[in-house]
Specification:
single chain; about 525 residues; alpha+beta; Alpha-Beta Plaits; FAD/NAD(P)-binding domain; 3 domains; 7-stranded mixed β-sheet; 5-stranded parallel β-sheet; 23 strands
Length: about 525
Amino acid sequence: MFKLNNILLPLQYTNDGLREIVAEKISTTIDNVKHVAVVKRSLDSRKKDKIRYVATVVFSLENPKTVKSSNLEEYIELETSLSKIAVDESKPLNGAEVVIVGSGPAGLFCALTVLARGGVPTIIERGYEMTRRVNSIEEFQSGKGFDPISNIQFGEGGAGTFSDGKLNTGTKSQYIKAVLASFVKFGANEDIEYEGKPHIGTDVLRDVVVSMRTEITAKGGKFLFGTKVDKLLIKNNAIVGVGFSGENTGEIHAQSVILAVGHSARDTFKMLHESGVAMEQKAFSIGVRIEHKQAMINKSQYGLEKHPLLPAIDYKLATHMANGRGIYTFCMCPGGEVVCGSSEEGQIVTNGMSYRSREMENANSALLVGVNPSDFGSDHVLAGVEFQRKYEKLAFQQSNSYEAPVQKLGDLRRNKVSTRFGQVKPSYKPGTVFGNLRMCLPEYVVDGILFGTEAFDKKIHGFNSSDAILTGVETRSSSPVRILRDEFNQSNIKGLFPCGEGAGYAGGITSSAVDGIKVALKI
């Protein structure tokens, strides 16, 4: 197989059209080009009157000798089978018991890789299985009580299940293709393997996660839902198992325990610290969710409020203040909604979510300002957790309920509580109240939000609109701690393997899944 990079494609193209483009590029006949396929594709919308794709195309040739070698670049396809990766890169586990704490992408891909190596994984998840989790979240969004066990953060699939299902990542790894191929195997759309900004969508991702669980259990893995690990069993500075409580109570003995706990397992962080697991403070970001009309974002990027051939478009923006503090958008959800990501009672946390179709009226994104350990006010390893809690509680106190405080951007600038909505209406469930976000964010974060929205308006005209809706607060951009590990991905406790976003080694679905594979290969 051969490949061509940076091929310009129209928005609509056929297989024969691809063959014709390739043939012209390498100066051969169309009949000589066989088995053509797009393996990478991103949108180029810089010219509004000529929006197109920039692609990497692979193909085979009937007679390669008729083409000048300088026009050909060999295409080497990376291995995408987790089973083959496990066999090629590690020794078999020979039936060894492996405990995995957490069923997010890191935990699930760790379990799949352990199985491929011949191990027996037991996944312990503090939240509920998917159907029960979805029901409890929908009940909460309709105004019923908050469940600290089953919510946007905790439950089968982890926090990413109730998001946009975004799969693009800034990290590089040989395992990314394997992750994407696995998602397709379990039910995701095939386009995630070649789109430059792939996403699954929360509705599809829920089914994908259940399919992964079905395969894991069919191959001998076990799940304990509604069960929290609350004790490490340690002997001679080595792990020998874990203790747990909840719907299942007891102990499991194992020489390998993977901590794939997610960034919101605050009581678990406390337990680990008290058990002598080495940890350190870590920088993260806080801010708000900002909502605009998706039609405005589309018009800025496409030149049209709705393009007949293209989906709702996203954006990614970043800038820095003179003092070096960064402001950026994160986890942008085109045609999505803002949701409550709280994991503890009496606190409000916001997050964003989109379905596969991305057809809702608003675009939303986290609008975040970087915070560092020097902002936490303490050198205690869990000071970042308390920093998050402080502002989540202040947000809750604006209504003394899970109705989130909202404010129009123009009113935040004027330090005025909004009294009515303009063109943009908030999408947050279970509801909102008008509040002053200056009362539940540090002053330097508010300054960063105001600075950032002005700067971003130069990239997306209308971003700084007075009617843009801000919903507070967003505090869970990443883990507030890093659980230290060595070159074997092992903590200071032998046999204990920190993994994924909660441990401070990933940021998003794909990088967490990749870290799950890497850790499973190191056991």
